[in-house]
Specification:
Bound molecules: zinc ion
CATH superfamily: Cytidine Deaminase, domain 2
Structural class: alpha+beta
Radius of gyration: 17 Å
Largest sheet: 7 strands, mixed
Helix content: 25-40%
Number of helices: 9
Strand content: 15-25%
Oligomer: single chain
Number of strands: 11
């Protein structure tokens, strides 16, 4: 797990089971990272879509610090046709809609909703591209937590704009807000979602198996689970 704060980047290497970052134990971080993975099945229709980028946005500033889920998001490029709808952008849009819903839990005004992001933590199962990392900084999130790194994605064949989140964050010091960056959280569980797409020998994520010529993964059917 890596934790970075602005303006000084600090590399911390501890055993994940005992690490507490920003006052929150690893077990809590793991819970919410798994929640970001689960968003895939809920919003994309498959637990193992080709573009398995999932996000969960959480408020850890509530009473016990465990966290309150505000919204989830997944990559919707193919569903919607909007090429900017990466998981993080979709989640920011979903959260905004939930925060400002006049009949919802929060009923915030637009300006109140914008300010609310300063209390929120964004969990994404893969390091954000520079577009999403910039959006996270513009939103002013309190924390940004990712699993699989961009380096891993590139190494396994994913096309990426190869600028790390840390570089984006270091270039955003003029912004008024500060966002704590925590990387490599639960990467041992997020990596399998991203390692099969360009490697037919790599197994599908849990609950899924190869289909067709091995270039896709699909969920087990009920019969196959018996
Ligand atoms: Zn992105």
């Amino acid at each position: 797990m890596r934790l970075f704060t602005i303006p000084i980047a600090v590399l911390l290497c501890f055993f994940q089971v005992v690490l507490t970052t920003n006052g929150i134990p690893f077990s809590t971080r793991a819970y919410w990272m798994r929640r970001a993975n689960q968003a895939l099945g809920e919003l994309s229709g498959s637990p193992c879509p080709f573009a398995p980028f999932g996000t969960a946005v959480v408020n850890h500033t509530d009473t016990d610090g465990f966290g309150d889920l505000i919204c989830i998001g997944v990559n919707q490029n193919r569903q919607i046709g909007n090429p900017s709808l990466h998981g993080e952008i979709a989640a920011i849009a979903n959260c905004t809609a939930i925060l400002t819903d006049p009949y919802g839990r929060f009923r915030l005004t637009a300006s109140e909703a914008q300010a609310a992001f300063a209390d929120l933590t964004l969990y994404t199962n893969a390091e954000s591209c520079p577009m999403c990392a910039s959006a996270i900084r513009w939103a002013g999130f309190k924390e940004y937590v990712y699993g699989t790194s961009i380096d891993t994605l590139v190494r396994k064949g994913w096309s990426q704009i190869h600028i790390s989140s840390l570089e984006v964050f270091q270039a955003s010091l003029d912004l008024m807000s500060r966002t704590v960056l925590i990387g490599d959280v639960l990467a041992n569980e997020t990596d399998p979602y991203f390692l099969w797409q360009f490697d037919p020998t790599y197994p599908c994520p849990d609950g899924c198996l190869h289909s067709g010529n091995g270039t896709r993964c699909r969920a087990f059917t009920r019969d196959e689970l018996r």
